[in-house]
Fold:
Amino acid sequence: MREEPLRVLAGAVAGALAKAVDTDLWVDLRAGVAAVLAPTLAEFVSARLDEARVRVVGAPAVRLELARAEFTTEWRGSIHTMLWQHPEAADPLRAVLNAVSPALPRVAGESGVVQHTGVLPGGWPAAHG
Structure:
């Protein structure tokens, strides 16, 4: 498997975990990710994820988005390393992510408004808001 798809998947999973830290989705998502990435070390990986989660949920409200970003950065690297070592875990990991994706909360920007960005056909930027 090529490097870039693994990196993208690692980022998507880390981002989903960061969004789920303060939701009811956390336990199942954490368990699913740990079981797929490190079946023989699932409890250890789950414990490490829980330690990182405590740092996010314990952050003051003004630092919450920064704490989520730090979590995502930390875990993107770890997940990428595990996927690089076990690329066969990519499809089961996508299945775990797809199972929770529709239920994940959308993270609002500083203004409290969910930011939508993108490019319209023809290359024009999409509106925000």
